[in-house]
Amino acid sequence: MSKINVSILGVTGSIGRQTIEVVKNLPNVSICAIAAGTDRAGLEELAKIARPKRAILYADEGMDGLIKCATMPEADIVINAVVGSVGLKPTLAAIAAKKHVALANKETLVAAGDLVMQAARENNVEIRPIDSEHSAIWQCLKGQTPKRLILTASGGAFRDWEKERITTATPKDALQHPNWTMGAKITIDSATMMNKGLEYIEAHHLFNMPYKKIDILVHPQSVVHSMVEFEDGAVLAQMASPDMGQPIQYALTAPIHRKKSHTPLDLLKVKALTFEEPDYERFPCLSLAMQAAQIGGTMPAMMNAVNEILVASFLDGRIGFYDISRLIEKAMGAYTVKQLRSLSDVEEAEVFAKEFCSKEL
C-alpha cells in the first residue's frame, strides 16, 4: 500500500483524536495538516503528536484556514470531522482539489447532498463514510446494488424513558449516552434521534437510494452497525464493537481490512442482539427529519440549521428538550422551500433559520 497523507479537520473532537490514534498504527499513513475550532491548547497538544506541516485554528484563520487544510497539495484524504454546517465549504473545496473525503460531518450531505455528490462525480473523488452506520453499509455493498438499506440506531440516552420523564430531561441527562462517547452536539442529536434522521438523509445521497428503500431499526446493543438487503433475500450485516476506530481505519485503508488497533468484538459477552421499531411519538425529531428529506430542496438545509441552533440553546439551558422538536416543526411550517441549485441557496436557508430562531428564543 502506497503512502497516504491525511488532513484532519476537527482534530480536537472525538473523531479527530481517534483518527490520530488510528494513524499511529498505520505505518503507511501520515498526517500533513490539522485544524481545530477554538481549542488552542488541544491543537497545540495534538500538533506535537501528529507533527503536521500545517496546524490552523478556525477561531484565528476562519474558513480560509479550513480550506487551506482541505486543499493542501500533499493531502490524499481529507477527514472532515468538524461539527455543523461549517463543514460544507471545506468539503467542496477538497473535492474541487481532487482529494478523497472521509466524511464524519453529517451536515455536509444533509444541507447540500446533491451538490456534494455531483461535485464528487465530476472530480472522480470518493466520499468515504466514517459514521459507523454508513461505513457498515459501504463495507457490505462492495459495489453491489441492494434492495434496501437498514440503518440501526442505539436509541440514545432516553431510549427507555417514558415521554413524561423525557419532558423534564436536562442537558446532563441527555449527554449520558449508553454506548458511545461522542461530542456534545451529536450526543444530543442521538438523544432526540435527530441524528438518525440526518443519517437517513446521508444514506440517500451516499448510496443513491430512494428514501422508501431506507429503513431504521433501534438496536440497543450497537453491535450491528447497519444492514443491507439484496434482491435474493440475503441480508448482510456489519458488526463491530461500538468503537469508532474501525470505521475510521477502514476509511483510510479501504478496500483492505488492516490489522485492527481498536476494541475487538466479543459476541459471548454481548450474548443477545435485539431490534425494535423507532418510537416517533417520543422522538419526533426523527419523523421531522424524514419529512424534510421527502420535501427535499432547501428544506433539509434549513431544518439542519435550526436544529444546530436549538441544540446549542438546550445545552445552554435556555430551552427544554421537547422545545427542539416543537420549534423545528414550527420553522418547517413557516419556511418556503426552494430548489437546491447552488451553495447560495443553502446559505439563504441558513439565514432564514437564524432569523427564525432569533425571534423564537
Descriptive overview:
- Helix 5 runs antiparallel to helix 14.
- The strands form two sheets. The chain has a six-stranded parallel beta sheet with strand order 3-2-1-4-5-6, with helices on both faces. A four-stranded mixed beta sheet has the order 8-7-9-10, covered by helices on one side.
- With 361 residues, it is an alpha/beta fold.
- Strand 2 (29-36), helix 2 (40-50) and strand 3 form a beta-alpha-beta unit.
- The chain has three domains: 1-129, Rossmann fold, CATH 3.40.50.720; 132-279, no CATH class; 296-361, RNA polymerase sigma factor, region 2, helix turn helix motif (Rna Polymerase Sigma Factor, Chain: A).
- It has 16 helices and ten strands.
- The longest helix is centred in the C-terminal third of the chain and has 18 residues, at 343-360.
Structure summary:
The protein is of the alpha/beta class. It has 16 helices and 10 strands. The N and C termini lie far apart (53 Å).
Set out the fold topology.
Elements: E1 4-9, H1 14-24, E2 29-36, H2 40-50, E3 54-57, H3 58-70, E4 77-80, H4 88-96, E5 100-103, H5 106-122, E6 127-129, H6 132-141, E7 148-153, H7 163-167, H8 171-174, H9 184-192, H10 194-207, E8 214-218, E9 224-229, E10 235-239, H11 245-253, H12 267-270, H13 284-295, H14 299-315, H15 321-334, H16 343-360
Parallel strand pairs: 1-2, 1-4, 2-3, 4-5, 5-6, 7-8
Antiparallel strand pairs: 7-9, 9-10
Helix pairs in contact: 3-4, 4-5, 5-10, 5-14, 9-14, 10-13, 13-14, 13-15, 14-15, 14-16
